[in-house]
């Protein structure tokens, strides 16, 4: 399988490469990894920035900003995660539409009626949609000229270097405001309402000002109104500004609240508010650290971790397609800025677990748990079952959106969301979470699926309708012969996970029930005796396809793995080889990032690195945003458009984790897929299943030190990362069993192994 690489000719990339070489020439280990990313990971973009999707991204979980502009005018595009228009087109979900009617029309071949009813309204109606908040524009003095835009990742601070002085911006991690500091007297500035909301039929915004404060109020759908309030004040030879984005979700008078918040912020002052902000971000970066000798991959990995801190925070909505950086281009966001549960939300929240950023991941877990009653109603009203069903394409309120109705109305999407609940339990080993959330959520999804499954002539359970997300787009062929490998893999995983969770709870009756259901599902569909995996029992993959939906059993579900039977490995190898044979012309950026994960999980480190490098080289904007299409001009994909979505970034971050640390199947694997050129690598406090914090270092291509801290307590099984060398352990109870080391670690205990230097 061959994917091409592109060179990095620019001076900045050479600087990053030199820094990485210097870094690793010292052979530092994880003990010397700094708290926070190195300065070489900071964004440093030459002015002007004339596109919003190349801007400096800032945020505090609920609100976000994009800093950009030209020589004399700065722009700060503003967003807030809970600003949504929740209306559905009049025809969607009306007139008794339910699953039985859907089945009937599919069986009768009435695909035009299906499209007219389910898809057409989503193409013509501007809502439901995420909506942007607005923009701040600042006209600099004619004598000041913008030179460079920067993002300091360690402190989450944006900086605009001028020919004299600098402008600084941060979205406070501890207060619901953004702060700016500019040199000189108060410049001419204004807050602008988003022009794109005119497409939603809203009345024009109303503007006001009072001394140092100015604002607008934008009426939206129903009772929703939101305001952007700006207050300025002189501070010696500087000017300070505070911005608040408020809405009727905060209180009945958004303007009064915004004025109160900005006044309080400026009373404390920029410097005073910056201190707790920096403290929050230091604690964020202290959770874990990674150092790899690919400068571009290191820089992107650090940026992805920053995205978690800036765009995902417990108590705020989780990241939709664009996070808290909704498009500022006088149009509504691509794909409505919604929640796609056929891939996007899952990939977006892959990488928080291994990096130990559980508070960021809890945003998604809390959100889906809160929506469980709504999704129980969806199961009852649409599918006619008990349990819960998650829409494949969803608005903030949890309601289904008609786009992509084949997979958008598939009941297995909830199983992929359930995987996040299961993984959160496995990485934290929180028994309360298992009992109160993980098991109940997975059980609810499984109950809906169980009610829908019907035995065939051989007694094997099949769904009435089956799809593989985005395969055949919205054509009639998208209805696959049940069960597609996508649906089957998710059901096999879910029932198996419920067996494990039920047994952990001591409920062996429930475990037996789920085990029986699992035993009545057919094996995965495979071409010939040894693969590759098919789309469905009677359809092989014969076309280049961006969504690796048929390979879900390999990654992330791990039903097929290279430590299984020889046939399992052959199926995996054949499946990945087939992707190369079919080519990448219909791939998006996330396809390459996901393939890097698949390759790392499949013991193919060179393929993993190659696709990861290709992703960061060809599919991201200069500010790091994943732009979906190929921006390199090298022909890696036939998609050359540039809609921005975040899931590709996070999949790439997870690929780094998969190369450095894996822990599926109850075994911790250190450096399981490190390419040959990564001779010196280190990481600190990455998390493994079983609630273990793992640190390790690799020098001259050999693992020299591993440290494992038990955050819950239990037996750790470590696959030998030392290549059979003698190991000095700090615990005399470490036992060798085949290729593994075993040791029981009580909570808080640290196990350390150091390879012999002989």
Describe the structure.
With 758 residues, this protein is α+β, with helices and mostly antiparallel strands. Among the domains are: 33-84 and 131-290, putative glycoside hydrolase family protein from bacillus halodurans (Beta-galactosidase, Chain A, domain 5, Distorted Sandwich); 669-755, Immunoglobulin-like. 33% of the residues lie in helices and 21% in strands. The strands form 7 sheets. A 9-stranded antiparallel sheet has the order 1-8-9-10-11-16-15-14-13. A 6-stranded antiparallel sheet has the order 17-24-25-26-31-28. Strands 2-3-4-7-12 form a 5-stranded antiparallel sheet. Strand 24 (681-688) and strand 25 form a beta hairpin. Helix 11 packs antiparallel against helix 12 (431-452). The chain is globular and about 75 Å long. The model is unreliable at 1-27 (pLDDT under 50).
Summarize this structure briefly.
By secondary structure, the chain is an alpha+beta fold.
Kindly report how far apart the N and C termini lie. 38 Å
CATH architecture of one domain: Distorted Sandwich
Helical fraction equals 25-40%
Class from helix and strand fractions: alpha+beta
Major sheet: arrangement of strands: 1-8-9-10-11-16-15-14-13
Which ranges are low-confidence, i.e. pLDDT below 50, for 5 or more consecutive residues?
1-27
Highest CATH level, the class of one domain: Mainly Beta
Fill in the CATH topology of one domain. Answer: Beta-galactosidase, Chain A, domain 5
| Number of H/I helices | 18
Mean pLDDT: 94
Major pleated sheet: 9 strands, antiparallel
According to DSSP, the number of beta strands is 31
Give the radius of gyration: 26 Å
CATH homologous superfamily identity of one domain: putative glycoside hydrolase family protein from bacillus halodurans
* Strand-residue proportion: 15-25%
Which word captures the global form?
globular
């Amino acid at each position: 399988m061959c994917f091409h690489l592109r060179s990095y000719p620019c001076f900045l990339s050479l600087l990053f490469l030199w820094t990485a070489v210097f870094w690793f020439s010292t052979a530092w280990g994880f003990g010397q990894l700094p708290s926070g990313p190195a300065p070489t990971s900071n964004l440093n973009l030459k002015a002007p920035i004339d596109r919003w999707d190349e801007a400096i991204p800032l945020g505090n979980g609920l609100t976000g900003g994009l800093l950009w502009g030209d020589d004399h005018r700065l722009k700060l595009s503003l967003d807030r995660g809970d600003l949504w228009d929740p209306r559905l087109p009049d025809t969607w979900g009306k007139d008794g539409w339910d699953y039985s009617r859907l089945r009937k029309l599919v069986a009768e071949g009435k695909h035009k009626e299906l499209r007219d009813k389910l898809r057409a309204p989503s193409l013509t109606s501007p809502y439901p949609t995420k909506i942007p908040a607005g923009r701040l524009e600042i006209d600099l003095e004619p004598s000041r000229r913008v030179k460079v835009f920067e993002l300091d990742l360690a402190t989450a601070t944006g900086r605009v270097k001028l020919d004299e002085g600098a402008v600084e911006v941060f979205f406070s991690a501890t207060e619901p405001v953004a702060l700016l500091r500019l040199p000189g007297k108060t410049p001419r500035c204004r807050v602008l309402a988003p022009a794109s909301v005119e497409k939603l039929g809203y009345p024009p915004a109303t503007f006001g000002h009072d001394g140092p404060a100015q604002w607008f109020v934008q009426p939206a759908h129903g009772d929703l109104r939101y305001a952007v309030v700006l207050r300025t004040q002189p501070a010696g030879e500087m000017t300070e500004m505070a911005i608040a984005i408020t809405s009727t979700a905060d209180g009945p008078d958004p303007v009064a609240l915004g004025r109160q918040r900005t006044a309080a912020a400026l009373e404390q002052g920029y410097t005073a508010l910056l201190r707790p902000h920096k403290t929050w971000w230091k604690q964020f970066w202290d959770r874990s650290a990674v150092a790899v000798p690919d400068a571009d991959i290191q820089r992107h990995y650090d940026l992805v971790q920053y995205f978690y801190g800036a765009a995902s925070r417990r108590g705020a909505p989780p990241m939709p397609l664009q996070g808290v950086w909704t498009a500022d281009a006088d149009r509504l966001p691509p794909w409505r800025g919604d929640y796609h549960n056929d891939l996007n939300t899952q990939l977006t929240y892959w990488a928080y677990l291994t990096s130990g950023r559980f508070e960021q991941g809890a945003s998604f877990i809390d959100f889906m748990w809160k929506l469980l009653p709504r999704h129980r109603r969806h199961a009852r009203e649409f599918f006619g079952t008990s349990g819960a069903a998650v829409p494949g394409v969803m608005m903030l309120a949890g309601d289904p959106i008609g786009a992509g109705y084949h997979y958008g109305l598939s009941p297995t999407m909830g199983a992929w969301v359930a995987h996040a609940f299961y993984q959160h339990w496995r990485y934290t080993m929180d028994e309360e979470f298992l009992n109160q959330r993980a098991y109940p959520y997975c059980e609810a999804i499984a109950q809906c699926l169980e009610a829908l499954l019907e035995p065939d002539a051989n007694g094997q359970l099949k769904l009435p309708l089956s799809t593989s997300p985005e395969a055949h787009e919205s054509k009639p062929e998208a209805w696959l012969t049940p069960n597609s490998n996508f649906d089957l893999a998710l059901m096999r995983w879910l029932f198996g996970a419920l067996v494990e969770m039920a047994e952990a709870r001591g409920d062996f009756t429930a475990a037996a029930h789920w085990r029986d259901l699992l035993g009545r599902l057919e094996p995965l569909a495979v071409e010939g005796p040894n693969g590759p995996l098919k789309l469905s029992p009677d359809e092989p993959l014969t076309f280049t396809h961006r969504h690796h939906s048929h390979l879900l059993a390999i990654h992330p579900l791990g039903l097929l793995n290279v430590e299984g039977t020889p046939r399992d490995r052959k199926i995996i190898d054949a499946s990945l080889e087939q992707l190369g044979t079919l080519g990448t012309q219909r791939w998006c950026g996330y396809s390459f990032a996901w393939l890097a994960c698949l390759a790392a999980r499949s013991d193919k480190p060179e393929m993993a690195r190659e696709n990861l490098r290709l992703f960061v080289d060809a599919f991201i904007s200069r500010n790091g945003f994943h732009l979906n299409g190929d921006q390199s001009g090298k022909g890696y994909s036939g998609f050359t458009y540039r809609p921005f979505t975040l899931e590709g970034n996070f999949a790439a971050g997870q690929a780094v984790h998969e190369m450095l640390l894996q822990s599926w199947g109850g075994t911790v694997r250190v450096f399981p897929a490190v390419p040959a050129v990564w001779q010196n690598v280190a990481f600190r406090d990455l998390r493994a299943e079983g609630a273990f914090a793992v640190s390790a270092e690799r020098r001259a291509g050999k693992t020299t030190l591993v440290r494992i801290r038990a955050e819950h307590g239990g037996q750790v099984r470590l696959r030998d990362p030392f290549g059979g060398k003698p190991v000095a352990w700090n615990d005399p109870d470490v036992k060798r069993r085949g290729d593994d080391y075993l040791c029981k670690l009580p909570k808080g205990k640290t196990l350390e192994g150091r390879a012999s230097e002989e």
